[in-house]
Amino acid sequence: MQQNSLTVDGARFWSTIDASAELGKGPRGGLRRLALDESDGEMRRLFIRWCEEAGAKVSVDRLGNIFARREGAEDLPPVLIGSHLDTQASGGRFDGIVGVLAGLEVLRSLEDRGIETRRPIEVVDWTNEEGARFQPPMLCSAVFAGKVSEDWALARTDDAGVTLAEALAGVGFAGSAPVGGREIDSYFELHIEQGPALAAEGLPVGLVVGSYASMGMRIEITGDTGHAGPTPMAERKDAIFGASLIAVGVNEMGRRFAPEGKATAPRIEAWPNKPGIISERATLYVDFRHPEPEATQAMAREVEVLVAEAASKAQVEVEIAERWEFGGVDFSAELLTLLREQAGELGIGTLDLLSQAGHDAYNMALIAPTALVFTPCDGGLSHNERENTRLEDQLPGINLLLNAVVGRANR
Ligand code: GLV
Ligand code: MN
Ligand code: MN
User: Fold this and answer.
1) Sign of CA dihedral 352, 119, 86, 134
2) Which ligand is nearest to the CA of 138?
3) Which of 155, 234, 361, 404 is 20 to 30 Å apart from 170, CA to CA?
């Protein structure tokens, strides 16, 4: 390691991971901390306290995105570090959380040494990255980047019909700062890999050079109720049958597009959803991803065919009610060069990777030079309460983040 390289306080960083793991504990050792629920509110307040103790100035925008700012010597656009503190319904302790708390540790490390950077450095916790409570995922960074409107985001509802606006007010995070509309020098996100490549190569850091073009759809299926016994098979309008045909077809499509392509139907709901009665309505979500945008488009056309076939076979009406896209973005060549140089100086081995999961970095890449850095997680397992990693697996990536951010802020 070069003499002038900086290092973070690993034990201090890990103590913040441990504290986070107590808020919204899942039944199997992970986290269930849905966006803007009570535990997310607690986590947010703790994060703000930590940031303020590190001397940062905290602001909350109208979508609850939290920014902690450490001023620079000059009034220039900030270098932003971020990720998310919300989790999946059955999530791990690291997905997203590592990136936000690594950002906090960067601020604390600079404060420890009294280092002044030329540009300000900010750390952000984006609201509702997972899309587990409000769909689509990465909702509030999408507004920040100008991809969707603030009003549209505020009107999204959760399963109980609560709007994002109501949830923000309920948990005390309907802030007053405008959402976006300001210049960002650059954006860095550190995230667990959520795949097995780093462990397989025995390397501590992944540099993300591209992202899967990904698509989600909400599909509404409408049939009619009827008795599960006497109704003749030829006369049934079975919404669950229609939804199932699409779900099976999407999974078969994923197998045909494998290994690069991925596809699933992650969610199905039905009504009345009782024994003895044919279901009148079903809502199905589908999710498919491929590194080649044309292949993702081809998959979308296949889903449209599946929808028509299911409608005819199950004698139901099927509508693709909503679709959303993310990924397929380019990351900054300049930031990748900086990260490679810094990794070289720190003696950290890196692997070039594509990102398959969604990340707020995809939205930020639309408006600022953006870098996404991966760190290992055991078995590539995530969105699972057994998601796991250790401090020593995260430290190389966090030290790289610290040095790259300082390099960028001082240029
Ligand atoms: C979001 O994190 C996704 O990959 O769906
Ligand atoms: Mn994540
Ligand atoms: Mn996730």
Assistant:
1) negative
2) 1
3) 361
Structure tokens at 283: 């809502």
Atom of ligand 1 nearest to the CA of 356: 4
- The one-letter code for the residue type at 313 is K
Which three-class secondary structure state does DSSP give residue 332? Answer: coil
- 10-53 pLDDT, tens digit per residue, is 999 999 999 999 999 999 999 999 999 999 999 999 999 999 99
Q: Is the CB of 130 under 6 A from ligand 1?
A: yes
pLDDT at 257 over 80: yes
| CA torsion angle 358 367 191 256 (round to 10) | 30
Structure tokens at 110: 């600079």
Residue 105 and residue 16 in contact, taking contact as beta carbons nearer than 8 Å: yes
Yes or no: say if 313 and 345 are a contact pair by the CB < 8 Å rule.
no
* Residue 240 Cα to ligand 1 middle (Å): 26
Q: Please provide the average confidence, as pLDDT, over all residues in the chain.
A: 97
Residue 150 to residue 141: CA distance in whole angstroms: 10
* Ligand nearest to the backbone CA of 212: 1
C-alpha 220, offset from chain centre? 25
pTM higher than 0.90, yes or no? yes
Q: Which two tokens stand for residue 310?
A: 């299911």
Confidence of residue 2 (pLDDT cuts 50, 70, 90): low
Q: Tokens 């300000």 belong to which residue?
A: 120
136 prior amide bond cis, ω within 30: yes
Minimum-distance ligand 1 atom for the alpha carbon of 137: 1
C-alpha 129 – ligand 1 centre gap (Å): 8
192: Cβ below 6 Å to ligand 1? no
